[in-house]
Design brief:
heterohexamer; C: mainly alpha; MetI-like fold; 2 domains; 2 strands; 1% strand; flat; D: Rossmann fold; 6-stranded mixed beta sheet; binds adenosine-5'-triphosphate; binds magnesium ion; binds phosphate ion
């Protein structure tokens, strides 16, 4: 047979195989290197600047050494709480609608598209929109407006992961529930959502982690505040905002605080992402598919 | 589920059975020929056919067994295979009867020839035609033709009984002819059994074709 | 009607078990209980309406953002018309505004980022899913996932402190020497530059593209790989004919997502691009993006026309991301059509 | 105890394809009835019409009467109520993966608000026993998830889950086709035991399976019910030529 | 694949066959008893058992057919069912022979009693014990026991031949006793056939138990 | 033409589980050989050892000799070469979904740098004809994707794809278990036709399928080859008690 084993081609094929392997390894290295560099630098710089005061003091006036970011940590907490209260329920409910009620309809396609658009809308644009809606009408910057901006940014991520995770739940599971005479809403809440819960939690955590580090939309909503504040209608500080301000400042001590803030922020994010990974890797989701 | 090969195998099975049936039928005819012309060489022929028939019986049985094991036959196909297994046994016994007849002819040959007032060839042709008809019914999957075999059996039985009476009277009257008469009586019985086997074959054909177990109406009736 | 039925069943269950068709003689505890339950038609309807309202909220938000931006920028639109998009002037003092340098900066920095990130992230994903030993696989994918979660301001900080000096002292001189003749790498070299923005954007979108690519590659069924191997394919050939084609859709999706993020990325870019509204051929020159100009100047906008012009830039950015998203959907849709049956 | 099912003039459509045509059929109570026929002939559609699962498909439509005992399921009650009374077991085992074995069995009641713990314990045990699964899982009831047991066990779990709501009819759409022969035999034994208490309708591609478990068998072809008769009759001596051709593999 | 019910069904089938065999065996014994004590009422009993045997034959056949259609039997199970089908036919014919013997006894009864120098009861007990042994082999799935039946058949054949010679000589010498002698001769043939059927049953048992088709070695050999 | 396969002392492991023990076996050339046995007995592992697919699993290990004709596949050649000579068809059809039907069939040759368009056309047509698929797809060769045809057609496409590289041996791991009866019958007919030209090894759960297509049958149990004999022998009168028990359902 003419096509049986052409020895000549074999060497070249082996070579190509090696070449491809080499390229992939190299690519991976090039990617991993800066990542490790960032981490190493962050830990090195940040850890050396961390101290107790960082968590318990508010910033000192310009030029003075010392102070901390208590105001920013508390502020971020307030902002993220508001954001989650807005983003997660709306996001999940919309995801449920897309997955369970509107598979093929025009309306749901429109919603799906707008969710993708919203996901792609630059955070700063969201900031502007919220600014003109809330800040301009209230005539002052506020924690509430910041929370709303972040919440809006959470919605599409939560919606789309919820939808995707729900679609991963086999149709058979839904039929099983309906076949038992379970009402539709009950089946959706107790079976479908629960089956997909690990994935949905992942989505929420990712959305949370994403907005936790957002700076741009806070620039003209939460604005920042050098004092600790819990009031929703007052300007409020936030970790990323504070980091930005300190990073672009010319003062060394502020740079130090910026690094420390970054480390804390990353630590929070890493913890939440790891938690998510732990939950998902326990295989709760795997059984579903 | 186009089980082409399976159905070819069924056809092969039928073919094989018919070949064997042909040999058995021929053996019966030959044995009667031997009786008519008192020819020992024909007896030899008949007796030599027995191993062939037995071998074919085994082959057919094996083939049927293989098909049952390997093809999950259902409905008409299953009934067909079961009918073949039963017909197979009957045909083999028809062959046995031919051999028995040949044996009797051989005994007769050793005795002084006598003229007996019975028409064995007629009985023989009757029985043989029952076998042929039953086989034709099998070939054509014709239940009606098979039914007709069942009625012929009664005639064969009557002829046999008549022969029995004639011969037993003859023996009584002419004791000198006892050995010959006894042998002929047994030949008649053998032919009657051939008819019975033909009847069995016909019943199996009806069972295969229509699914009705004809014994239900027939045997209990008689 | 349903309520009445439930009642009837209860009655039947207690008093005349065999009267109704189904409530036969043996109502067990379970059966009796279930027969007493309503058919939930109302709660089902309510639930569905609630979900629908939430879904519509998303649509309303986007619509609102668009209308708000358009309304707030009406003054600039009226003033400059379409020329706003291609004029290069940016002079708050004379109130002369054009978005061209920002649009240019946004597009170039994003494309540059894609150029760097796509090959790297795809080959990383290939390495992780197809080649690397299993223990290493986990830590590598965890690492890349973490990177996706690092806030941009941290990237900016790192870029400002580490990347920019590194570019200025080591890499840019090298580039000028070897590739200077193309005109893309000419001095003067400030460190903060379009290139720096492109590199930091690339680093930021790398994990996004690579983790999505990795995910879709790991969903390629093992049977597809075995099909190729059983035909006598080498590992690379197996990846080429089984893995990559099956994953191309997801990879395209990941790239688009990365592009979206690069276009709108604000803080890190603001910190390293140099923030100068000029268009230069050299990638080593500073630039400006739409997002950065908003971040830098929005709170300082003093006149209403200035503010309006800035918001119009926001509007343009918004529209650009919509267009990119639409393109992405179109692309994904056209690819899916070819392989739709795979999904079935 | 089970009840008989009376189907009259049943027609079903998916979009504009007419999937079932004029089905007339009386399914006897407390017996197993098998439905066979070539792929796409409408067997699944038919059983899904019996508990109104058909209408969960947005393009599906159905006309005709289905009576369970005296109850006209399309006119007298809502689908949710009817599905509680007519249990269904699907081709692929579909336990709720996030629930424990116990919760799976309890789900039909719990999801409808049943809260009596003690009664629930009893019902769960009895259902698992009836489904011949109790001995295999009793030690892991609340520890193992419904998805962590073998395929055959999962399918029996699904049967137990259905039994727990004490339905009168059990519909099974190729319940063993995804299982290995040993699990299949267990499911068949189970059906055999259950049929004294329930009316069972089982769709199967496997004729021997139909033969083994069912007293009555119906043969569907192109959306029509060609023949409905005693199983032995269908498999040894069907009346209709098309049935005979299908059974003996002369079809298609 | 714990096909419990199927194997129960096989046991039921066996049970049924044994019940029927018991009736057939009893019929043979009764017919000989009738011969010994010249009792017509026993003949009636025997002849009345025929419909029952026929009915059971049909039932067993149907059950075997159903099992073949519904259970895909394989290997030993399949061979068992086929053996049952064949044994079934043989037992039914054993019953027929009993009826035939009863018929002969009835004829004899109508004639003046004579003392014939042949030991029919001995031949009968020999044949009956072949049947019993073959059935025991079937119950115990014992191929060796079945083998022993095959050797007994030769003795039965010899005894039958001896009786044939004796009687044909007797007829020759004492023509007056012809009718009685002829009937006894036929009874002997019937008993010989019973032995043949027992032989067939034994062969089927061997086939079932060991899978070896014993006819291969035996029929061709003889 | 096919070649015989000689297996000596084959042992295989997954991690530390010893999956195959001391397998000795001679598979005849140009015949179909069926492998049966309960789930998990090692049938799949065995056939995967025959074309060195086993070793693609990172935790897998194998010892012993497998000779295809005179070639010791574990010592004389690379796996890539051996897999081209020993084609494999899997349980679930796995056509390349992104390729057209034509490209699917041509893929094996293209991999080897085969570029002659005209010869390729011929080979594709011949392979599809041999796989009894040509008439059904000839009009859509380059228009339809490999995934857009029915399951049964997909499986025949996979067979055609394997035939196109002209292997000497065809390994099939439950090739019809995911298909409906009609498609199954087509695949069986196909195997029956192909076996005059190829050495075919087919794993199946369906004993009747083994009976229908194969001349020889091997029975595996717990990683051991219990019996290997003519198919009719195995199914009507096996020598080993364990085989008999499995065949007749007395097992387990
Ligand atoms: N969800 C659906 N949408 C559109 N048509 C469908 C759908 N489900 C089934 N059909 C069509 O309805 C007909 C009957 O399908 P059904 O599933 O009832 O067949 P079946 O007898 O169960 O086949 P199988 O044995 O393959 O399960 C088929 O022709 C099929 O194409
Ligand atoms: N990828 C794997 N990793 C670890 N163990 C495996 C793997 N595949 C199979 N095994 C184990 O090897 C043994 C043999 O498996 P194999 O797949 O060969 O069985 P099989 O006979 O093909 O079964 P089936 O009929 O279910 O396909 C089983 O006990 C199984 O648990
Ligand atoms: Mg179906
Ligand atoms: Mg396997
Ligand atoms: O065995 P018989 O020929 O006498 O039936």
């Amino acid at each position: 047979m003419q096509q049986r084993i052409q020895q000549s081609g074999q060497t070249w094929r082996r070579w190509k195989n090696h070449l491809a392997t080499g390229t992939a390894v190299l690519g991976a290295l090039v990617v991993v290197a800066p990542l490790l560099a960032i981490f190493a630098y962050l830990i090195y710089k940040g850890a050396s600047s961390l101290n107790w005061a960082f968590f318990t003091k508010v910033p000192k006036p310009v030029g003075e050494i010392g102070g901390g970011m208590e105001n920013a940590i508390v502020g971020s907490g307030v902002l993220l709480t508001v954001a989650s209260l807005i983003g997660i329920p709306i996001g999940i409910a919309a995801g449920v609608y897309l997955a369970e009620f509107g598979r093929k309809r025009l309306l749901s396609n429109l919603v799906r598209f707008t969710a993708d658009v919203l996901n792609g809308v630059p955070s700063i644009v969201v900031g502007i929109a919220v600014y003109s809606l809330i800040v301009v009408t209230q005539r002052h910057f506020s924690a509430f407006s910041g929370g709303v901006a972040l919440g809006i940014m959470m919605i599409p991520t939560v919606t789309r992961t919820t939808e995707e995770m729900l679609l991963l739940v086999p149709h058979a599971v839904r039929e099983a529930a309906l076949g038992l005479g379970v009402p539709n809403w009950r089946s959706t809440v107790s079976i479908t959502l629960r089956t997909a819960s690990a994935g949905i939690i992942t989505g929420c955590m990712l959305a949370f982690a994403r907005v936790a580090g957002e700076t741009a939309p806070l620039l003209f909503t939460a604005f920042g505040n050098d004092d600790k504040s819990l009031a929703l209608n007052q300007p409020i500080a936030a970790l990323p905002l504070q980091i930005f301000v300190y990073a672009v400042s010319p003062y060394n001590d502020w740079h130090r605080l910026a690094w420390a803030g970054s480390l804390v922020l990353i630590f929070l994010i890493v913890v939440s992402v790891s938690l998510v990974r732990y939950v998902t890797s326990r295989g709760v989701l795997k059984g579903a598919s | 589920m186009t089980r082409i090969r399976f159905h070819q195998n069924l056809d092969d099975l039928k073919e094989k059975l018919l070949v064997m049936a042909g040999i058995a039928e021929q053996a019966i005819q030959r044995s009667i020929e031997a009786y008519r012309v008192r020819d020992l060489s024909i007896c030899d022929l008949v007796q030599r056919s027995e191993p062939a028939i037995n071998r074919q019986e085994r082959e057919i049985d094996q083939m049927a067994l293989d098909l049952l094991a390997m093809e999950q036959p259902m409905a008409i196909d299953l009934r067909f295979i079961l009918a073949v297994i039963k017909i197979n046994a009957d045909i083999e016994r028809v062959g046995d009867q031919a051999v028995n007849i040949a044996g009797r002819v051989r005994d007769l040959q050793a005795m002084p020839p006598v003229e007996l007032p019975v028409d064995i060839p007629k009985l023989a042709s009757m029985s043989a035609s029952m076998v042929r008809r039953a086989l034709q019914a099998f070939i054509d999957a014709d239940a009606d033709l098979a039914e007709s075999v069942l009625t012929m059996d009664d005639q064969v039985d009557q002829m046999n009984n008549a022969i029995y009476r004639t011969l037993s009277k003859l023996i009584h009257d002419e004791p000198s002819q006892t050995p010959q008469a006894l042998n002929v009586l047994l030949i008649a019985r053998n032919l009657e059994r051939v008819g019975d086997h033909a009847t069995n074959i016909a019943e199996d054909v009806i069972f295969w074709v229509s699914g009705a177990d004809v014994r239900r109406h027939w045997r209990t009736g008689s | 009607m349903s309520g009445k039925l439930a009642e009837r069943d209860v009655v039947n269950g207690r008093e005349s078990p065999s009267a109704s068709g189904l409530a036969v003689a043996r109502p067990s505890a379970a059966r009796r209980y279930l027969n007493a339950q309503s058919d939930s038609a109302f709660s089902d309807g309510f639930f569905k309406t609630l979900m629908l309202a939430s879904a519509l909220t998303i649509f309303v938000i986007v619509l609102f953002i668009f209308l708000e931006l358009a309304w707030q920028s009406r003054m600039a639109i009226a003033h400059f018309g379409i020329s706003f998009l291609y004029r290069s002037a940016w002079n708050p003092v004379s109130e002369d505004f054009g978005a061209r340098p920002f649009i240019y900066g946004t597009l170039v920095s994003s494309l540059l980022a894609l150029l760097i990130a796509v090959p790297l992230s795809v080959s990383t994903a290939v390495f992780i899913t197809e080649m690397c030993p299993i223990p290493l696989r986990r830590s590598l994918s965890f690492l890349t996932e973490l990177l996706a979660a690092i806030p941009s301001v941290v990237y900016g900080l790192w870029a400002l402190v580490v990347l920019v000096p590194l570019l200025r002292t080591e890499i840019n001189p090298f580039l000028m020497r070897t590739l200077g003749w193309t005109g893309f790498f000419e001095g003067p070299d400030y460190g903060v530059s379009m290139l720096a923005a492109g590199v930091i954007l690339a680093i930021m979108i790398l994990p996004i593209i690579s983790s999505i690519t990795r995910e879709v590659m790991s969903t390629v069924p093992q049977s597809q790989r075995e099909a190729a191997l059983a035909l006598g394919a080498t590992r690379w050939e197996m990846i080429r004919i089984s893995v990559l084609p099956n994953a191309r859709l997801g990879i395209a999706g990941g790239i688009i997502l990365g592009l979206g993020r690069a276009l709108g990325e604000t803080m890190a870019v603001t910190m390293v691009i140099g923030n100068r509204p000029e268009i230069a051929r050299s990638l080593l020159a500073p630039g400006y993006t739409m997002a950065s100009v908003l971040a830098n100047e929005f709170t300082e906008a003093t006149t209403s026309l200035y503010l309006s012009a800035l918001i119009e830039i926001g509007l343009v950015l918004f529209l650009v991301t919509i267009v990119v998203n639409a393109l992405a959907r179109l692309l994904i849709w056209s690819v899916t059509r070819g392989a739709s049956s795979r999904m079935a | 105890m089970g009840v008989g099912i009376e189907v009259k003039d049943l027609n079903a459509w998916y979009g504009s394809t007419h999937t079932l045509r004029d089905i007339h059929l009386n399914i006897p109570a407390n017996h197993a009835t098998a439905l066979i026929g070539p792929s796409g002939c409408g067997k699944s559609t038919f059983v899904r019409c019996l508990n109104r699962m058909h209408e969960t498909n947005p393009i599906a439509r159905v006309t005709g009467t289905v009576k369970i005992g005296d109850l006209d399921i399309y006119n007298d009650v809502s689908p949710v109520v009817i599905r509680r009374r007519i249990g269904m077991v699907f081709q692929r085992p579909n336990p709720f993966p996030t629930m424990s074995i116990y919760d799976n069995v309890a789900s039909g009641l719990r999801l409808n608000g049943f809260r009596n713990r003690q009664a629930l314990d009893e019902i769960v045990e009895r259902s698992l026993r009836r489904a011949a699964l109790w001995d295999e899982v009793k030690d892991d009831l609340k520890r193992k998830s419904g998805a962590s047991i073998s395929g055959g066990q999962q399918q029996r779990l699904c049967i137990a889950r259905t039994l727990a709501v004490d339905p009168e009819v059990l519909l099974m759409d190729e319940p063993a086709s995804a299982l290995d022969p040993i699990s299949t035999a267990k499911i068949e034994d189970l059906i055999f035991q259950l049929k004294s208490e329930y009316t069972i309708v089982i769709v199967t591609h496997n004729m021997q399976q139909a033969a083994r478990v069912a007293e009555k068998t119906g043969f569907f072809l192109n959306g029509q019910l060609v023949e409905f008769d005693a199983t032995t009759k269908i498999f040894t001596n069907p009346s209709d030529k098309r049935t005979e051709d299908y059974i003996t593999g002369r079809f298609g």
